[in-house]
Structures are given as C-alpha cells and as structure tokens.
Amino acid sequence: IIEERSWEKSAFHYDNVIKAMLTLFVVSTFEGWPGILYVSIDSNAADVGPKEDFRPIIFLFYFIYIIILAFFMINIFVGFVIVTFQSEGEADFKNCPLDKNQRNCIEFALNAKPIKLYIPKNPIQYKLWSFATSPLCENTVFLAII
User: Residues 6 or more apart from 40 whose CB is under 8 A from it?
Assistant: First the structure.
C-alpha cells in the first residue's frame, strides 16, 4: 500500500523575506544553526522534497555568514556601545573647568594607596596609630559629628 505524503516546510526557510530574516537571525544567535544548515544542504528545487547532501556547497554561505557576523558585526556593535557610554560619561564633565588629563590625575591621586604601610615601633605611637586606623575611630568621629 502506498500512502500519499506531503512535504512540509521547515520552520526556518528562505521562501520569503520575513522568514529569511528570521532564519538569518536564528543562525546569528548560534542556537540551532546546525539543523538549519543540514536542512539547507538537503534542500532541492521548489516544491520538491529534500535529497540528502544535495548541495553541500551551502555550508560556505553559513561559514562566511557566521564569521562575518560573529567577528566583525558584533564587535562593531560592542564598540559602538562602548563609545556611546564614554561620550555620555564625558557629557557629565561638560561644564568642568578641568580637562580630561587633569581629571584623570586627580582621580589617580584620590585612589592611590601607599605601597608601604608605616607601622610605628614606639608602643604608645603604635596604640594611637592602631586606634586612628580602626573602624572604632571612624565610628567615634561619626558620632561626634552628629
């Protein structure tokens, strides 16, 4: 007994522009792209079922598309986002009388930490130093200010 069968399209195909754009988007996300690759390789003429490995050269399209998209387009997008954030950060200092180099110098000086920690050898100086650098001293000064 011969059953009549019908060929159903894959969910991702290139038969119209909208579906083609969706297919390329799915390939660009790297989710499920090997399945789309195999369906494309097996594809045949219009309204004809697939033939296994009918067009193996199709892999070149996907290979080049992924290389160009992954290495160039995504890097360009990330670079654009970084440049935008940098320009927005510079906009905060628009009315500042200092130039960028002077602001960087001040920021460096404020964030600088000494390379060598001075610890007094005299016992009385050491007790005063340990109190002055302790959180207890900070809290005491904070309460005195309040």
Answer: 14, 55, 58, 61, 62
